[in-house]
């Protein structure tokens, strides 16, 4: 099983180098909030890597709530909240739900991940796998193609795309 981790952006310019917003130093409160967010995410990642999925899921959910709170207040340049981190939290929480065979909730997580970070190919791949398993071949094909648009060398997506095409043809042949 692959485990997808992310890096934390250290400042706003790493997230969006073309931003026209002027950077300001974070206040003590904002800096503390950012450190708490990173600590929550790091702890979630550690539990995820150890296979302690209940703990990881709770921490990913806490991170998502913390991020939403910071975002609603207006993200400060030094808050250390990044779309990459949020997308990873959604993706990994989706993985945990997939392990529990909560496919629709897992897909919600993957969809949230790509809404936050559209260039993150992994959630498209995971969502495509679930769509394939559920027999939604056209939707799975779209996700696998998107993965390959973003990362042409993603071997598992190449294989999954080929298998989905074959199974779709077989389904059509049998007139399901």
From TrEMBL:
The keyword Zinc does not apply. The keyword Zinc does not apply. Residues 9-33 are annotated as: Disordered. Coiled coil: none annotated. Residues 10-20 have a biased composition (Polar residues). Gene3D superfamilies: Tetratricopeptide repeat domain. It holds the Pfam family TPR_2. TPR repeats lie at residues 87-120, 121-154. InterPro entries: TPR-like_helical_dom_sf, TPR_2, TPR_rpt. Keywords: Repeat, TPR repeat. This is Tetratricopeptide repeat protein 32. It comes from Balaenoptera physalus (Fin whale). The lineage of its organism: Eukaryota, Metazoa, Chordata, Craniata, Vertebrata.
């Amino acid at each position: 099983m692959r485990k997808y981790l992310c890096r934390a952006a250290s400042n706003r310019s790493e997230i969006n180098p073309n931003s026209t917003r002027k950077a300001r130093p974070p206040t003590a409160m904002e800096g503390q909030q950012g450190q708490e967010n990173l600590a929550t995410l790091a702890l979630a990642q550690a539990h995820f890597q150890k296979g302690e999925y209940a703990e990881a899921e709770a921490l990913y959910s806490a991170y998502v709530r913390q991020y939403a709170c910071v975002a609603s207040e207006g993200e400060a340049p030094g808050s250390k909240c990044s779309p990459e981190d949020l997308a990873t939290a959604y993706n990994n929480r989706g993985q945990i739900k997939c392990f529990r065979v909560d496919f629709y909730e897992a897909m919600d997580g993957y969809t949230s991940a790509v809404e936050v970070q559209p260039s993150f190919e992994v959630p498209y791949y995971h969502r495509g796998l679930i769509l394939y398993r559920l027999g939604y071949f056209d939707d799975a094909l779209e996700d696998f193609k998107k993965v390959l648009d973003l990362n042409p060398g993603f071997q598992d997506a190449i294989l999954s795309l080929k298998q989905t095409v074959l199974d779709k043809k077989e389904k059509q042949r049998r007139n399901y």
